[in-house]
Amino acid sequence: MGVKIMSEMFAAGESPEILFWVGCAGSFDQRVQRITKSFAEILNKVGVSFAILGSEEACTGDPARRAGNEFVFQMLAYQNIQTLNNYNIKKIVTTCPHCFNTLKNEYSALGGNYEVSHHSTFLQELIDAGKIKIKEGGSMKGKKITFHDSCYLGRANNIYEAPRKVLEALDADLVEMKSCRSNGLCCGAGGAQMFKEDEPGDKRINVARAEEAIATGASTVAAACPFCMIMWEDGVKQKNAEAQIELKDIAELIAERMS
Amino acid sequence: MIQQILFVFLAAVAIYFFTKKVMSIRRNILLGKDEKLNDNPNLRWKNMMLFALGQKKMFKNSLVAVLHFFVYAGFIIINIEILEIFLDGILGTHRLFLPILGTRLYSILISCFEILAVLVIVGCAVFLTRRNITKVNRFTKPELKGFPFRDANIILITEIVLMTLFLTMNACDFIFSLDYKLDNYQHFDGGVVSFYVASFVLLPFKFNNETLEVIERTCWWFHIAGIFAFLNYLPYSKHLHIILAFPNSFFARLNPVGQMENMVSIQKEVVLSFQPERASEFPADEASMKFGAKDVKDLSWKSLMDAYSCSECGRCTAACPANQTGKKLSPRKIMMDTRDRLEEVGNNIDKHGMDFTDNKTLLGDYVSVEELRACTTCNACVEQCPILISPLNIILELRRSLVMEDSNVPNEWAMMFGNMENNQAPWKFSNEDRANWIKS
User: Fold this and answer.
1) For residue B377, what is the nearest residue in chain A, using CA coordinates?
2) A213 contacts: CB under 8 Å, gap ≥ 6
3) Between chains, do B396 and A54 touch, taking CB under 8 Å as contact?
4) Any idea where the domains of chain B sit in the sequence?
5) Which of A186, B109, B188, B218 is the most buried (most CB within 10 A)?
6) ipTM for the complex?
7) Angle, alpha carbons B341-B343-B348 (nearest 5°)
């Protein structure tokens, strides 16, 4: 689909405007791959020159660091920073708030200094600049949509408005869940929880969150994080609400409707 | 004269014991690891003004915020009146500031204090109701059972009693001042004072002047003795937040909350294994390298100050996704455990000297593995805390010790670590397949 690999570009003596950091979920999880493709499609359509690292990309180390394993984190961070610095990467955009947080806030202490943006901010800027236009009949007017704040985008990095502005471009009826923005309820994936069972309790966190979305009566839940997406898919399934609620990343919503 | 001697003695004892306890708390906080938190003083002053003085985060719930602000403003402003009471006690005078400020100004000031005192009583009454009758959810969690629950009630009841004593004391003087011409109360030769609020307290009763004087003196003594007692209760109570909220918000970490502290010792090990020539970039090894925190001394001094500053309000716990879904984790309990353990370590030092170990640790004896494992690092607790405490920092440091010192890892995480080491991803996919999505 016209996506260039950094090593090949480098060998040809070219350098991209931005590096698209795909992330592990974006590369391997079948559901999240659709988000990755949507974002790549948008980049291609608006004519942003970009590349991905492909097999040279490694996990940023976020889940290991937060689980308590600093060794694994440092190894992966070292490897990634070597790769990024060798290619003289300056600008990175990623669809994953966890990757975003680690690349932006944690790699600088290890010698990796980049201008990192999350795709929500990036898309908002493209919309503001008039580079993304919604096609005729692409409006979501009259449809109720709610946005789920990712912890690593919102509280961790104070990005609440950008994804909402992206959704505003679709003209949908944006409703908020009981807990939103800085009070947003986690999807349950952060801190490496995604990779293990919940500790004993009354219910799963993603189920509690799905209940909040169902209460809004929204037909679409928009997310901006691949981990959230995976947790949401499961939470909505547990509540038997798949028919009633459509789960989409903001990139998918835009890609489906841009001219 | 006897009253003066008694007062000075009482004041000296109260201040001595308070200072002693404050010094021991200071020492305990400094048992923590060094962390540099004095950059960007302008922003730090601003944070202190906004979060400690202005109580910005309290205003997420405006009714509670306003009531809390009354109690707090009452506490601060009525302290000006305490200055007079204190000087009266030492000098043997009565309402020293009255002749200095003039009857009119003095009356206005005291009346303002009295309005605040009434608001404090209202606030405390509502707070007592929330804790004991309507039982707001965050006040009924298991970690509040026993002393913490009593502690809150003791504070609220004490404040109501102190304010009532203050108003009654003023009421007596008001009635005396009505009679000033009779010259039966030598202090009131300045005319009628108008204590608007307190005047309602005793007017309906017909007391003779001797009885009024007994009531006035009793209230005066109980009020100031109560304040001395409260001062000494403070450092053992959650109420210490009225003082520590200020330095705690001043020294709050300024980094984005999603950023974890780098472990230079491990960075060094990893970098040097690939590039031994970079050795000069890193500090020399410390004698004993410990990963994360097993006990309070392994935490940053800021985390220890956090623990002493915590008012156990439980906003963190109410917002915690793990706690909301019935898991054992409660960020407030993490703070309370840290303070309890630190007090224990401090007491051990007082009794047995610096090198004593009781073979107990914060991790294990206070905070369980199950609690630590439930955290999603979502920062909801950090976001909620009105005085910028980070329970998450403690949780993450304890997790580091659990994983790197004790190799205590659930199976799923062990697999995840293995995958990350071998395949550079938390799942078992080959890294060669990373770009396969391009083809489909």
Assistant:
1) A191
2) A146, A148, A177, A221, A236, A245
3) no
4) 2-30+61-250, 256-289, 291-426
5) A186
6) 0.97
7) 95
Top residue of B290, B434, B436, B440 to mutate, by most chain A CBs within 10 Å, is: B434
- The values of phi and psi at residue A155, to 5°, are -55, -40
Classify domain B291-426 at the CATH topology level. Answer: Fumarate Reductase Iron-sulfur Protein; Chain B, domain 2 (1.10.1060)
Residues of B with Cβ-Cβ distance to A207 under 8 angstroms: 325
The values of phi and psi at residue B229, to 5°, are -65, -45
CA distance A136 to chain B (A): 28
Going from the C-alpha of B132 to that of each of B61, B63, B164, B165, the distances in angstroms are: 20, 18, 21, 24
Class of domain A4-124: alpha beta
Question: Can you give the pLDDT of all 440 residues of chain B as single tens digits?
Answer: 888 999 999 999 999 999 999 999 999 999 999 999 999 999 999 999 999 999 999 998 899 999 999 999 888 887 788 899 999 999 988 888 888 888 788 888 888 888 899 999 999 999 999 999 999 999 999 999 999 999 999 999 999 999 999 988 888 887 777 765 444 444 454 555 666 677 677 766 777 878 888 998 999 999 999 999 999 999 999 999 999 999 999 999 999 999 999 999 999 999 999 999 999 999 887 666 789 999 999 999 999 999 999 999 999 999 999 999 999 999 999 999 999 999 999 999 999 998 899 999 999 999 999 999 999 999 999 999 999 999 999 999 999 999 999 999 999 999 999 999 999 999 999 999 999 999 87
Structure tokens at B415: 């697999």
Contact yes or no for A196 and B410 at CB 8 A: yes
pTM of the model: 0.96
C-alpha pair distances (Å), B153 with each of A65, B124, B242, B245: 41, 9, 16, 20
d(CA B213, CA B208): 9
CB within 8 Å: B403 and A69? yes
Structure-token pair, residue A145? 């949509």
Q: Which residue of A has its CA nearest to B410?
A: A196
Q: Cβ of B118: how many Cβ atoms within 10 Å?
A: 16
Q: What is the residue extent of each domain of chain A?
A: 4-124, 134-257
The beta-carbon neighbor of B434 closest among A57, A71, A75 is A57
A103 contacts A116 by C-beta, under 8 angstroms: yes
Point out the residue among B263, B427, B438 whose CB comes nearest to the CB of A70. B263
Q: Do A69 and B417 touch (CB under 8 A)?
A: yes
- Is residue A179 within 8 A of residue A185, CB to CB? The reply is yes
**DSSP notation for B18-60:** HHHHHHHHHHHHTTSBP----S-HHHHHHHIIIIIIS-GGGGG
Say which of A27, A67, A203 has its CB closest to residue B325.
A203
Verify whether the Cβ–Cβ distance A157 to B410 is below 8 Å: no
The residue in chain B having the minimum alpha-carbon distance to the alpha carbon of residue A109 is B262
Residue of B nearest to A101 (CA): B258
In the stretch 59-118 of chain A, residues with CB closer than 8 A to chain B read 59, 61, 63-72, 74-76, 78-79, 101, 105-106, 109-110
Q: Please provide the DSSP assignment of B356-405 as one string.
A: ---S--IIIIIB-HHHHHT-----HHHHH-TT---HHHHHHHHHHIIIII
Q: With beta carbons under 8 A apart, name residues in chain B contacting A152.
A: 258
Domains A4-124 and A134-257 share a fold: yes
Euclidean distance between CA atoms B134 and B114, whole angstroms: 28
Q: How far is CA B33 from the centre of its chain?
A: 21
Q: Do B380 and A101 touch (CB under 8 A)?
A: no
| Residues of chain A with C-beta less than 8 angstroms from the C-beta of B401 | 68
Cα of B241 to nearest chain A Cα, Å: 24
Which residue from B256, B370, B432 is facing A157, i.e. has the nearest CB? B256
> CB–CB of B321 and A24 under 8 A?
no
**Which amino acid belongs to residue B401?**
S
